[in-house]
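> call design_seq(struct)
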């Protein structure tokens, strides 16, 4: 068995308003770092991380939106073949939460009907500036049949859990 081999390959796509922390979540998970300053945009379309789950090698191809979210130019090609979507908002930004229905409409329009969507409330380290209660987010995610998790890319809270739980679910439903 060569180093290139894997048992599963999944494409995971991050979506959500600009500034909610998508790039930081990807970099925290794939590189173990929190980028300083505003320069968080990565110059590649996706990053790869291979994890091992119950002895199985799971290769995760994680797609970031690198600024296109501002221009609403994310279209079918971006969602096509995504096995999972991480729909992210910022718990300190009400506006990013209020935009979620718009993102859900895009998912419905462009993504596969088998896609697994996880709702993520990021920046939980800024809980004193919270604008969206956990209860409100949980009610919303339950109504939409989505799994919900609060994370901090900065403090590394729940970031591993987010991707590993998602990989486990993807294997179960593969
Ligand atoms: P994107 O536009 O969704 O990719 O968001 P970025 O990853 O570029 O992050 C936008 C801003 O939020 C940057 O200034 C980050 O440093 C900051 N940020 C991202 N995640 C967190 C977090 O978990 N906690 C805090 N306090 N700031 C964060
Ligand atoms: Mg970004």
């Amino acid at each position: 068995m060569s180093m290139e081999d894997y048992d599963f390959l999944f494409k995971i796509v991050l979506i959500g308003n600009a500034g909610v922390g998508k790039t930081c979540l990807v970099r925290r998970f794939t590189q173990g770092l929190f980028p300083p300053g505003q320069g968080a945009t990565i110059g590649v379309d996706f990053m790869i991380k291979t994890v091992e789950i119950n002895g199985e090698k799971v290769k995760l191809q994680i797609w970031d939106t690198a600024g296109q979210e501002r221009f609403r130019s994310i279209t079918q090609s971006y969602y096509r073949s995504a096995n999972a979507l991480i729909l992210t908002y910022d718990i300190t930004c009400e506006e990013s939460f209020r935009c979620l229905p718009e993102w859900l409409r895009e998912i419905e329009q462009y993504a596969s009907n088998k896609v697994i969507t996880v709702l993520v409330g990021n920046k939980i380290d800024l809980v004193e500036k919270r604008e969206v209660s956990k209860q409100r987010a949980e009610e919303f995610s339950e109504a939409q049949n989505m799994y919900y998790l609060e994370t901090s890319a900065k403090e590394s809270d729940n970031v591993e859990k987010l991707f590993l739980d998602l990989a486990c679910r993807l294997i179960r439903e593969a």
